[in-house]
Amino acid sequence: MASKIPEIIPNYIGGEFLPAKEGGKLDVVAPATGKIYAQLSNSSEADLALAIQAAESAQPAWADLKPEERAKYLFKIADLIDANIPEFANLESMDTGKAIRFVEDIEVPRAAANIRFYASAIIHFASESHAAGANVINFTRRDPLGVVACISPWNFPLHLLSWKIAPALAAGNVVIAKPSELSPLTAWRLSEICQEAGLPAGVLNILHGEGGGIGEALISHPRVKAISFTGGTATGRHIASVGAAKLKKVSLELGGKNPLIVFADANLEKAADAAIRAGFQNAGQICLCGSRLLIEQSIYDKFKALLLKRLETWNLGNPSERSTDQGAVISKAHREKILGYIDRAKADGAKILTGGKSYKPSADSQGFFVEPTLIEGLACENAINQEEVFGPVVSLQTFKTEPEALRIANSTKYGLSASIWTQDIGRASRMSKAIEAGIVWVNCWNVRDLRTPFGGVKESGMGREGGWESLRFFTEAKNICIQWEGQA
Ligand code: NAD
Q: How far is the CA of 309 from the centre of ligand 1 (A)?
């Protein structure tokens, strides 16, 4: 049965739902209406102290369980998410302004799949033994780290939280998670589900509140052994410096300014479909979004026409309707930031091909919407082609040769992903190798396989998530060599 949203969304500490000890509260706003729908516990160091104590008490018994036994809890949690997909989707859509179709069909099922994936993976995550001669056993254990912090952003709240806590828990760690203060609802509902699944108290703790407050306290706490962070590059850089001072393990998944490169020999219809999804799904608030569209000069006009045609039927509006393609952006401040980039682009001489303004789905709407916007005419050094706008804004650039496409693609400080469209396998191979990115798609975009490494280079991150990478991050290797006298 669906849970009623509490007036004050509580923390989840030691298996209990608790308000912030010092009474801190934040308003939580629904982006599609601009209305406050609840308040959020704004945690402080007092709550963190409780969570550390609960986590440390739970850790030995959790780590001592056989992997199969830990996996059973995770499978149960995944099943309970699957059994409540419409509820999770409604909560996420209200909290973030996301179009419900994508949340219901992709993101919530993905969260369950993430958890199920690591429940199975841990069963196969074997220790290695090394042949070392007679009378010797030499083997490497992968032990859990202890208390770990999982900090997630607002753009895929449940999916990205599950992507961190699942490997951490599967590997035998205990977790203190800090979801974004802008989108806490599905993390709260997940904590209810963990309780229902019988997850032992203290194994997963969820502290809500501001990044600069409880987030900062969490990353700085001496008993937190590792920080798994997804969010903006500036925050990531700060977390890296705090982690470095205390020699904590840190994994950073950060921003992107990803190129989608279309060569003249590509299947242009398919490339245009992908470019629209890469540019405007989730209102462009995807780290992997294709916000820079590099198009070979000879097909530029033709390809531009294909994009504009598709946007004629792109539905911007009420996120709770299944026919909606694009809902609201996360906040008023974020809408103003996006519109500020568009104004600056115009002042720099850009031509707005479509969009470019805020939008009201109804006359009295107070929600935060931005039209899907295509821009052309700016050099690759311009801010709109260099900085992460994180909104429904795609800038078109042209190139004449493969080396020029590569130069433009590699011109930003980011290096998360790239999508290359060509029928020429040699070119696909050369470009994929030379592009500075952690993930390259050829003739597709955002096709994910949970076994593969996920992450960026340059200022897009440090380390990789996914597959064995996350399990390696959340464990410490210990090599043990035992030698004895006498018969082997
Ligand atoms: P953000 O950096 O503002 O916040 C992310 C999280 O960090 C939030 O929970 C926030 O409360 C917390 N935080 C903020 N300051 C902190 C501090 N000093 N100490 C500890 N925690 C702190 O990012 P955002 O605006 O929530 O998310 C958008 C960004 O995330 C974009 O740049 C996007 O590209 C990036 N992102 C990256 C990936 C990826 O996998 N590479 C995925 C999704 C989003």
A: 34
- Domain with 383 in it: what CATH number? 3.40.309.10
- Number of structural domains, the chain? 2
Q: Does 344 lie in the same domain as 422? A: yes
Pairing of β 204-206 and β 226-230: unpaired
* Beta carbons of 373 and 392 less than 8 angstroms apart: yes
Same domain, 14 and 150: yes
pLDDT in tens, 425-479: 999 999 999 999 999 999 999 999 999 999 999 999 999 999 999 999 999 999 9
> What ligand 1 atom has the least distance to the C-alpha of 255?
34
State the pLDDT at residue 453: 98
State the catalytic residues. 253, 287
End-to-end CA distance of the chain: 61
| Ligand 1 environment, Cβ below 6 A | 151-155, 160, 178, 180-181, 211-212, 215-216, 219, 230-232, 235, 238-239, 253-256, 287, 388, 390, 416, 456, 461
Q: Which numbered atom of ligand 1 lies nearest the CA of 153?
A: 26
Q: Which pLDDT tens digit goes with each residue over 133-187? A: 889 999 999 999 999 999 999 999 999 999 999 999 999 999 999 999 999 999 9
Q: Range of 403's domain?
A: 259-442
User: Residues 297, 429: one domain?
Assistant: yes
Q: Are 366 and 35 in contact (CB under 8 A)?
A: yes
Q: State whether 212 and 72 are in the same domain.
A: yes
Q: How confident is the model at residue 82 (pLDDT cuts 50, 70, 90)?
A: very high
Helices (H), 16-106: 45-64, 67-83, 85-96, 100-102
Tell me the whole-structure pTM to 2 decimals.
0.98
The predicted pLDDT at position 464 comes to 98
Q: Which atom of ligand 1 is nearest to the CA of 181?
A: 11
- Same-domain pairing of 232 and 278: no
CA distance 118 to 379: 44
CA of 154 to the centre of ligand 1 (A): 8
- Based on the fold, state whether residues 265 and 245 are members of the same structural domain: no
> For the segment 474-483, what is each residue's pLDDT rounded down to a tens digit?
999 999 999 9
What tokens appear for 389 in the block?
A: 């706008």
Tell me the CA–centroid distance for residue 132 and ligand 1, in Å: 46
DSSP, res 443: S
Please check whether residue 99 is in contact with residue 324, taking contact to mean a CB–CB distance below 8 angstroms.
yes
Same domain, residue pair 138 and 246: yes
